[in-house]
Amino acid sequence: MVSAGWVLLILLFPDAVGVPVRAKCTLSGYHHHGYYKDGDHIIGGFIPLTKPPSRANHNFHTAPELSERLHSLEFKSYPHMLALIHAVEEVNKNPRLLPNVSLGFHIYNAIFEDETALAGLWGLLSETGQTVPNYRCGGRGGSKIVAVIEGPTADHASRIATALGPYRYPQFSYGHLDPESRQKVQFPSLYGMVPSESSLLASIARLIRHFDWRWVGLITSDDGRGKRTVETLRKEINKAGGCVAFTWLLTEYERYGPKQIRLLDDVQRSSANVTVLHGTRMYVEAFGMVLSWPRVHLKGLVWILTSQDEFPSETKFSSLKAFDRALVLVGQKRPIPGFEPFLQRIKPRNYQGDMYIKAFWQQVHKCLWRYTSWKPRCTGEENITTNKVREHKLLSPTWGYGIYNAVYAIAHALHALVSERPLGSTKDSQAWQLLSFLNKAHFSNPAGDDIFFDRDGNVVASYEIRNWIFSPEGSLGVVPVGSIQPRAPLGQGLVINENRIRWNRRFEQRPQSVCSQSCPPGFRKKHRQGEAACCFDCIPCRAGEIANQTNMERCLQCPDDQYPNEGRDKCIPKAVTFLTYQDPLGVTLASLALSFSLLTISVLGLFVKHRNTPIVKANNRDLSYILLVSLLTCGLCSLIFIGRPGKLTCLLRQTVFGVAFAVAISSVLAKTITVVLAFKATQVGHGLRRWLRPGVSNSIVFWGTLVQVILCSIWLGSSPPFPEYNTQSEVGKIVIQCNEGSVGIFYGVLGYLGLLAMISFTVAFLARKLPDAFNEAKHITFSMVTFCCVWVSFIPTYLSAQGKKAIAIEIFSILASSMGILACIFTPKVYIILLRPDRNSKQFLKKK
């Protein structure tokens, strides 16, 4: 938020909507108002060189006492100023970059109490020591100020961006920017030299995805940034297939208390082995102090720390010991080229305008400018050796890398502007003209990094993955283990050496962090009611389904021509099958059919041979021949059911069977009626004797068969049987079978045969007490009982069977019913003909 002082100033000067107006102002004291070096183009710098004092008088207006400077000097920010000075000097010495054009700088101490900060900002824009808002007082040509570098906090950036926005000065922030400050429409000239927080959170999600951690805890700061972090990181983790096990928001100022106790209890009870701690360096250190309390004994965890601030290495930090073996993501920084030689050349006499260099000198060389007995006296000629640079925690060669890149971005944009107008002068150029070149800037800095900005104005950079390892003495060792390019395509941009990572001692190998173990192939996930999506049970796939990957949400149905293997993790092609003559069942049924046919032929031959004997003639010889031929046809038609079904065989199977049995049952009915009429019309001239003519019995057979022929003709004409592939009847097999077409007509054919059989049974049953010698009624009764029992049993059995079994049941029913008729009707006659020829005579028949 913009403070009241800033808003008031803007309200007082409503004309501040463009380039400051040039006016005549005195230039006295210009070199006193900040640390200044002249050049063709000036880079403004707002760096907090001191801590906020009790009174705001440290903005280079008057020089404070050395002791006060030493006490208030912000040592971690002073190298930032040195990095800016070094970068400007390096650019000016480069003959290929901005030839014949020099860069200068004007650095202000950005304590950022409103009054002092406003004074410095408007003084910079006015180009004079006087604060004249909306007026440019310095320079004879165009404005020398081309860009402003500031930092390190988001508040600093937003305040300066609000004031500089109307003037379109390019602004470079080397600190972390609030996501709200990254609205390009509101702040079109603001550029971030630190990767955006969204890219950091995306990098965390990539790291979690790489290790397949699906159950992660999240702890962050209790402020607007922390809440946005929770929302963003939850989406990123969910997108990667994971879930957030618990979320806690804590301020960095909270100490060990009830809220922390509840948090630690949640962490201890949770099955998550990975916890993300996101916040500033101070926040991480404060939470580490909570974990360091003697009463806190957490189980071994994998901590992911995401602070972009530098943590000095090889230093004792008792508050960070709780994060031993943690993985830390930091913005990748390279050593600034030539920074060490630059530091070694620094002498206080060469920087007379820098009132804080002596305080810095005392800190680095551990000396005092005044005489004391406990420390050596500073001479100003001491050398900052390589060892001192490496040992001093604030002189890291990577410190100020963002400022270094900002200077080079400004230089390359100016170089592009110079190249566009080679014959003209750039000294009268306006700062806003650099924006189009900055948006398109893409260059390699002297360290070898590619520098360019994304559409939101953030520098695109990678993150370094570090492994913290504390020694028994408490010294922090930092081991680089990889890097992440957050904007690389998914599956790329992550380079990590897992062999270098040392995990928490609780884990012998790469740790897992899941709410539920992965469902193996062959199983699918069933989510638990009321729990996170990562908490589920594994249930096996149903019949006909497979799961060929782990953690599948649903099983896949195998195609009709395939079936699941035993593990239900892949589909196997089904074997094509049908009832063949090579099949044991087919061989058995074919043998029975041939045996029955041979037996029927034998009986028929026996009857033909003894056709003139009384036993053959007495029972209507012609009907016996018709019945035997029809039974032979029934036996042989069962062979059509064996073999690969085709169009012709499917058409013939049921129709031949239905017509053949219709002839057989009609013949039996005709024989039964003939027997009844023979005994009822014994007197000469009886009215029933005319029905005993041979043509009557043949008519019964004809009309009984004709009805069945008509039914079969309708069947073949309307919905004939056809071959089909049955993929469901047998597991792992495709059965080629005949589809009956019209099921209604099929059962109508069977029903008609049943009707004929019931009529024959009824007539035969009523005639069962007639004289035995001429009476076949008893035998016909038994044959029809057998026939009906077989086919009544057939229907439910056929309906419950599938594939080859259904075909086998129908063949068996055909043979069984045919055998029953043959056995019941013809066995007594064959017995008399072959074994009791004495009974096969007229005298014996008359006697009976």
Helix content estimate: 40-55%
Mean model confidence by pLDDT: 79
Work out the radius of gyration. 52 Å
Number of domains: 4
Unreliable spans are: 1-32, 55-61, 683-687
Biggest beta-sheet profile = 8 strands, mixed
What's the CATH class label of the largest domain?
Mainly Alpha
Give the strand tally: 27
Lateral arrangement of strands in the main beta sheet: 10-9-11-12-13-16-17-18
How many angstroms separate the termini? Answer: 128 Å
Tally of individual helices: 23
What is the annotated CATH architecture of the largest domain?
Up-down Bundle
Q: Using the alpha-carbon principal axes, give the shape.
A: rod-shaped
Question: What is the CATH third-level topology name of the largest domain?
Answer: Rhopdopsin 7-helix transmembrane proteins
Secondary-structure-based class equals alpha/beta
Strand content: 5-15%
CATH superfamily of the largest domain: Rhodopsin 7-helix transmembrane proteins
Description:
- This protein folds into four domains: 4-195 and 399-452, Rossmann fold, CATH 3.40.50.2300; 197-214 and 221-243 and 279-307 and 311-334 and 460-497, Response regulator (Rossmann fold, 3-Layer(aba) Sandwich); 523-573, no CATH class; 584-847, Rhodopsin 7-helix transmembrane proteins (Rhopdopsin 7-helix transmembrane proteins, Up-down Bundle).
- The chain contains 23 helices and 27 strands.
- The strands form eight sheets. The protein has an eight-stranded mixed beta sheet with strand order 10-9-11-12-13-16-17-18, sandwiched between helices. A six-stranded mixed beta sheet has the order 2-4-3-6-7-8, sandwiched between helices. The protein has a three-stranded mixed beta sheet with strand order 25-27-26.
- The longest helix is centred in the last third of the chain and has 34 residues, at 647-680.
- It is rod-shaped, with a radius of gyration of 52 Å.
